[in-house]
Amino acid sequence: MISAVQSFAGLPHRLYRFHNHEGVVYFNDSKSTVPQATCLAVNSITEQVPRNRIHLICGGYDKGSDLTPIIELASNIAGFYAIGATGECISQRTKSTNYETLERATKAAYENSNPGDAIVLSPGCASWDQFTNYEERGNRFEKLVQQLTMNNSCSPNS
Fold first, then answer.
1. Which of 11, 12, 13, 155 could connect to 31 by a Cys-Cys bridge, CB 3.0–4.6 Å?
2. Stretch (H or E) spanning 145
């Protein structure tokens, strides 16, 4: 039972650890559609990865939520990548870059990461500005990561 719990990766789109490439761990938390869920995700990951090694991709459809909890995360993480309709507001308040799309943010996070880091999609916002639902957004993130890591591998076993 202990072995099963320790090896449980999680449920899809719910802080799901789906990939590890060259020492960088990737989490899909696309189900995170409110700012408080993003904070919980970052706090949960700090049990595995120090907060200053986390690259967070967040933002999306603007449903009028108070984004302050997400904004407050920006000061002590490795990278902050704002996307979607809330991207401009988030990037202005955090003095970070608005990457606008998941594709651009994922590529930037990948390029800025180092072994020991984690790249986390935990938007804290709904997906409706660019995707049909959170599953589509999460699946797209996983495909982008697979493409980036496959295209930049030195060997097929990386």
1. 13
2. helix 134-151
Burial class (CB in 10 A: 0-12, 13-18, 19+), 14: middle
Query: What single letter denotes the amino acid at residue 113?
Result: S
- How many other CB atoms are there within 10 angstroms of residue 4's CB atom? 7
Cα dihedral 40, 54, 107, 22, rounded to 10, equals -120
The ranges assigned to domains in the chain are: 30-95
User: Angle at Cα 140 formed by Cα 152 and Cα 26, nearest 5°?
Assistant: 55
Distance CA 100, CA 95 (A): 15
- Cα(33)–Cα(76) distance, integer angstroms: 22
